[in-house]
Amino acid sequence: LKTLLQEIRKTLEGTGLVECLHYLRKRLKDLYFNLRMLELLFPETCLPKKTMKALDKFQTLLGNWHDLDFIRELLREEPKACSAKIRHKLDKEHSKSTEKTVGELGGLRPVLDELEQALEEAWHAARLARLIEGGEQRRAVNSSFHQKNMEEGIK
């Protein structure tokens, strides 16, 4: 997840390019589904709902932009599918959508920061829980071993 977050941050630096927006959309989708899986596997991982909603908002923003980009490219491949007037209108909408998407993506950085902090805290909490659990297991084994030795008269 840390590598994925780094890739997303790096991609955000070049969001003016269409290829970057496509790549960012895919990485955000990967991140979102990985986080959902993490929550399913480790319910104690409590990721902030506000952060997850914000991440979903950005994923939807990029998805809407992608849909428009896809339709635009599809119609370019089929010149007879629509009139030049419709194609021109679609190009204008695509430009506005790209501008809006790039503008709003500036708000993604703080969401990634919050998410990284929450993941760091969850990781430390899980590690601490494993250490505590491991310590309890060691004490139980030691106690059992000690009790068995006492029963057998070994000190």
Summarize the structure.
It is built from five helices and no strands.
Element pattern in H and E: HHHHH
The description of the largest β-sheet is: none
Rg, nearest Å: 25 Å
Helical proportion, percent range:
over 70%
How many alpha or pi helices?
A: 5
Mean pLDDT: 83
Number of strands: 0
Distance between the termini: 50 Å
| Molecular shape | elongated
Strand content: under 5%
Structural class, by secondary structure, is mainly alpha
Low-confidence stretches: none
In words, what does this structure look like?
The chain is mostly helical and 155 residues long. The protein contains five helices and no strands. It has helices spanning 2-12, 18-41, 49-77, 84-104, 108-151. α2 (18-41) packs antiparallel against α3 and α3 (49-77) packs across α5.
List the SSEs and their pairings.
Elements: H1 2-12, H2 18-41, H3 49-77, H4 84-104, H5 108-151
Keywords:
155 residues, mainly alpha, 0% strand, elongated
